[in-house]
Specification:
Number of helices: 50
Largest sheet: 2 strands, antiparallel
Distance between the termini: 93 Å
Radius of gyration: 32 Å
Oligomer: single chain
Length: 902
């Protein structure tokens, strides 16, 4: 297709492109509206591709911008483009790959990839053959342009390229790429490695058959003069380490020595090389291959943890006092609320309170592991992964691999760095000390009486970056500090950390707040004697903090409430804490995302204060109802009329549901009057059927908490609610299933024998969940408790299935510590055994073990358990019982003898 633009149209578009580079927001908005208007005209896209590929009289940024606008149009409206126009764009893009300008070639490559992603490579069958032919061009520019496009395609479509639908083009492409590893141009060598690297992780067959040639070629160019080439070599070796260790093993010594050199490079290569150590540290062969090199590696890692001059500039490391400078919105990372998950207490006493707790497991669909190095309070963008963080993370993993064997190498280095005159070296030593805390804790204990006071002194260092990393490192040793006499370490640490919470430097405030939250989690009720002192500081910080740190302060207050619980419920503490929280609450608009951390904080505070929260409960309750209602209305509007209404941010509804849960748990029966005067049950019915798993997860937690607090309002809706709960017993969504299971158990305890009609709809799925080997511990425990409770209220209906779940039931509940939920579940089990004693016989040893897990059962429950044990012994006779007991571990026999006299 040949196409020529109209001069007026072209001139209008050039003007728009120039205006869109304006810094004026009003101008940009007007341009945006005009561009959307022009999208109504099909040949608008022809003008855009014409500007990019043919209008050489214009400057490169304007031409490139034209291509990027076209890219967005294709991404959004690609399916509606006329075939002739799309063909014209494709043809011009391929031609532009030989443009003299690298920027125009790169933009054409982006466009080609977008078209391939939007319409699928199958709809552009000539693309890959054309690009591969262009690689053979004698013209370097053509070859380089084609490789740029191919790299983007390999990156975006790695799986598609290996599909039979495309006739497996990789069988041709990979051998071809390998030929370019020895090309005279470093840029082309780099592209060739980068393309192949995309296929390592998935063990793509087309690469695996050439794996030896690939490795041989990688080694050949490993010492390349070009840094970009070496960077891609390092990336390739890191991925090979994870998928083809067998092929690297014969060369491992040389690879380690090569990586040691590359880790000390002065640019980005060092980060890619450092990732090799992080990956190697997680492999089984780590100790075997790394031990001879450890003494060389550790100093390199510690040096890598030192801030560079550029880091200091970016971090404004010389700015000591910045508390008065307002935060920029772009420096505040988005907050994601973790929906409420119901968990049990372990027998050891670990875990949160009974019932629904804010669990850091959060949403099972996208569990993100709490990585201390991703958010180490180092820079304005905590997700920036750099050499310093990678080195620290590697040191941490190696400390976990080598444990105390690591210390003879590390301690002399720490001694040298921790007390160094250069603050940058000292700062890196403090970071290293924090990094090894988990792995080397046992070996570090003798040194901590000297090191902890030194670190507490460093909290007053004149350099803000030293003060902030010291907060982090001290938080890594908080567990040890709390286990020592308070006067020696906890009190001085707390005093200094609270001072740092009020530091004049915002980075230090943030680090101190985070460290204090960790200390709160470790110390729990040990903090009660100091509550007044702590609250004084945290409340003062409200007046002092800028936007970003205010959000972290909410976390510290919420964690304090979780840690000290009802001890916070004193008039003097309430009068200190609540006014600033309620003032923030009143000042925030309903659509402000700062509500998320504030609502989370209030949820913890409401749970801790119990009736102490009553004076504040009504406005908080009403607003939560309003947030849920607004979100549901928006959701219906956007579903029925998507062009006119945007989809709502359902996090507002989730956080509101969770705060209502906190209120129900804290206020208990006092919430009744609020519930009776609202439409909460109708809203809950809608939320329980929402398409978003997190909404259902939080609504089931709230249903369980309302069942406990004011069942009279839940009761009339049971026939509507229980089928929905039964339908959500789907372990594909672990936390949703978990909360539905827990809510069923809570409802059954209140409904008693009226649960009978619902047993057939819930018992089958619960038995399936308890017997699934992949069911996580929390869900297993809640399922066992709910089955036990169903057996308690309807033993005749549940007991016939006893043999299908008794073994797994006993194994799941032996680790739960004594509580009300365990009590009701065991009573249910005793009832079921009474109805169907034969059902427990094959697994009776598991029942014995579970009965022995009680510390102090209620008197009547103790009698029930004892009766079943003695009844079984009588039934089988002394001789068989003696043989049966021989299978018990000695500890179990002793425990049963002491507890149940058997």
């Amino acid at each position: 297709m040949s196409w020529e633009p109209q001069p007026d149209g072209l001139s209008q578009i050039i003007t728009l492109l120039k205006q869109s580079q304006s810094k004026d927001n009003m101008v940009q908005r007007a341009v945006q509206l005009k561009l959307e208007e022009l999208n109504q005209y099909p040949d608008f896209n022809n003008y855009l591709i014409y500007v990019l590929t043919k209008l050489t009289s214009e400057n490169e940024p304007t031409r490139s911008l034209s291509g990027l606008i076209l890219k967005n149009n294709i991404r959004i409206h690609g399916a509606q483009l006329q075939p002739a126009i799309l063909e014209y764009i494709k043809q011009e893009c391929l031609r532009a790959l030989s443009d003299p300008s690298p920027l125009i070639r790169a933009t054409a490559g982006i466009l080609i990839t977008t078209i391939a992603n939007t319409g699928g490579l199958t709809n552009w069958p000539e693309l890959l053959p054309t690009l591969c032919d262009m690689l053979d061009s004698q013209d370097y520019i053509v070859c380089e342009g084609a490789f740029g496009a191919l790299q983007k395609i390999c990156e975006d479509s790695a799986n598609t390229l290996d599909s039979s639908a495309l006739n497996r083009p990789l069988n041709v492409m990979i051998p071809k790429f390998l030929q370019f590893f020895r090309h005279s141009s470093p840029s082309i060598r780099s592209y060739a490695i980068a393309c192949i690297n995309q296929f390592i992780v998935n063990r793509t067959q087309a690469l695996m058959v050439h794996i030896d040639t690939f490795i041989e070629n990688l080694f050949h160019i490993s010492a390349d003069d070009d840094r970009e080439v070496r960077k891609n070599v390092c990336r390739g070796l890191v991925m090979l380490l994870e998928v083809r260790m067998d092929r690297l093993m014969p060369h491992m010594n040389n690879i380690i020595e090569y990586m040691l050199v590359q880790t000390q490079d002065s640019d980005e290569t060092s980060l890619n090389a450092c990732e090799f150590w992080l990956s190697l540290a997680e492999q089984n062969i780590c100790k075997e291959v790394l031990t001879p090199h450890l003494a060389n590696l550790v100093p390199v890692l510690v040096r890598g943890m030192k801030y560079s001059d550029i880091d200091i500039m970016v971090l404004k490391g010389d700015v000591e006092e910045d508390e008065m400078i307002p935060d920029r919105e772009e420096d505040i990372k988005p907050r994601f609320h973790k929906s409420r998950t119901v968990t049990q207490k372990a027998a050891s006493g670990a875990g949160g309170s009974d019932g629904a707790v804010r669990s850091m497991e959060g949403n099972d669909e996208d569990d993100d592991i709490d990585d201390p190095y991703v958010d180490m309070n180092d820079d304005s963008n905590p997700s920036d992964w750099n050499l310093r963080k990678c080195s620290a993370a590697t040191l941490d993993v190696l400390a976990n691999v080598y444990k105390d064997e690591f210390l003879p190498i590390l301690l002399p280095i720490l001694k040298e760095t921790l007390f160094h005159d250069d603050w940058l070296v000292k700062e890196s030593g403090i970071l290293a000390l924090g990094a090894i805390a988990e792995g080397c804790m046992t070996g570090m204990v003798p040194h901590l009486p000297e090191l902890i006071p030194y670190l507490i002194l460093c909290l007053s260092d004149k350099k803000a970056l030293v003060r902030s990393i010291t907060c982090w490192t001290l938080s890594r040793y908080a567990h040890w500090v709390v286990s020592q006499p308070h006067d020696q370490y906890l009190k001085p640490l707390m005093k200094e950390l609270l001072k740092r919470i009020l530091d004049a430097n915002k980075r230090v405030q943030e680090a101190a707040c985070s460290a204090f939250a960790t200390l709160e989690e470790e110390a729990c009720t040990e903090l009660v004697p100091y509550l007044g002192f702590i609250l004084d500081t945290l409340v003062f910080a409200f007046r002092k903090y800028q936007h970003k740190n205010l959000l972290i302060l909410y976390d510290a207050i919420g964690t304090l409430a979780d840690s000290v619980g009802h001890h916070l419920n004193k008039p003097e503490y309430i009068s200190m804490l609540m006014p600033p929280l309620i003032e923030k609450w009143n000042n925030l608009k309903d659509e402000d995302k700062d509500l998320f951390p504030l609502l989370e904080c209030l949820s913890s505070v409401a749970t801790a204060l119990h009736s102490g929260f009553l004076p504040y409960s009504e406005p908080v309750y009403r607003r939560c109802i309003s947030l849920i209602q607004q979100t549901l209305i928006q959701d219906v509007a956007s579903t029925t009329n998507p062009t006119q209404f945007d989809q709502p941010d359902k996090d507002f509804m989730i956080v509101a549901l969770d705060l209502l849960s906190g209120l129900a748990e804290g206020l208990d029966c006092y919430i009744e009057s609020l519930v009776s005067s609202s439409n909460i049950m109708q809203l809950l019915y809608q939320c329980m059927q929402d398409s978003m798993p997190e909404v259902r997860q939080s609504s089931f937690a709230l249903l369980g908490d309302l069942t406990k607090a004011c069942f009279q309002h839940v009761h009339p809706h049971i026939a509507d609610f229980l089928p929905i709960l039964g339908h959500n017993l789907n372990p594909e969504y672990i936390s949703v299933c978990n909360n539905a299971t827990w809510a069923i158990g809570e409802i059954s305890i209140k409904l008693m024998e009226d649960t009978k009609p619902y047993i057939p709809m819930v018992l089958g799925p619960l038995i399936e969940i308890i017997n699934n080997v992949n069911t996580p511990k929390t869900l297993l425990e809640n399922t066992a408790i709910t089955i036990g409770r169903l057996g308690l209220v309807c033993p005749v209906e549940v007991a016939p299935s006893l043999q299908q779940f008794v073994r797994q039931w006993c194994s799941s509940l032996r680790n739960i510590r004594d509580n009300e939920e365990k009590d009701s579940a065991f009573r249910g089990m005793c009832q079921m055994i009474t109805v169907n004693p034969v059902g427990v016989v094959p697994d009776f040893i598991f029942f014995c073990d579970a009965a022995a897990s009680w510390m102090t059962p209620q008197k009547d429950l103790h009698e029930m358990l004892q009766k079943i044990l003695h009844g079984f012994k009588m039934q089988v006779g002394e001789e068989n019982w003696a043989r049966f007991v021989e299978q018990f571990p000695p500890q179990l026999s002793e425990r049963l003898a002491v507890m149940y006299n058997i």
